[in-house]
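thread: overnight batch results

M.L. [08:02]
morning all. the overnight job finished for the chain we discussed friday. pasting input first so we're all looking at the same thing
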Amino acid sequence: MHDRDDLASEQAERELRNRLTTAFKTFTEKVEAISKGDVDFDTPFRDLGFPGVPFRSTAILQPTSTCLVNLSEWPPFVITLDEVELVHFERVQFHIKNFDMVFVFKDYHRKPVLVTAIPMNLLEHVKSWLDNSDIYFTEGIQSLNWVKIMKTVGEDPKEFLREGGWQFLEPEDNATAAAEEDEEDDDEYKGSESEDAGSGSGSDSDDDSGDSEVDEEEEDDDASNEDLSSGEESGKDWDELEAEAAKADRQKAMEEEQESSRMPAKRPNQRFGGSGGGAKRMRR
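M.L. [08:03]
and the structure it wrote out:
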């Protein structure tokens, strides 16, 4: 008996749900027809939905093209995505089963909306949806005092943005990595400038060195030509000198022969001196 009653109640609930769905669809079509397209009804994407606690009980939050809604629980939950400036994930630690999600609006005087108890295994799923919706998001391991934060931001929004805005919500590792990337970009830019300047001066020095090498080659060619010409001249002079020396030797030999033939033979008495002069040398 109880099984039949349960089946009958489930069947009646399904029929009621179908009648309500049909009635609501008919209502939306009539409104769109009457407004001539000024009013457009959006359909949630069930595949992108995720569970969370926007109020006191768990509800399935489903994105649309412009909103994040839950219309099956009371009170209804509706957030317009164009009004959201930042989504921050709190208590993101992989040894915890759930994390929280904070919606910060572009109107800094509006209170942020908190959705708690979202399963940790859906973190990447939610991030992918926010990324496709072009919504900036951050994450942290602690829960923040958003009343105090928004009070500080609302007092001087320009100064808040001038000091970095929401960058304080970024993890320290990401902030440090971003700063290092900026420094590396600056160093690469400066390095490229110095390389360009060095290449310019290097090209000038190469031109100068090329000119000097050309001058040196020309001087070497001139010197080699001079050496060749001087060598040729010195070769001719050496032949002439050899010929003159040989001629002089022959003349000298002929003169000696003539002198030897003209000299008379020596007599023996001339050695001891037969004249008066010779007697005087003996007396001494």
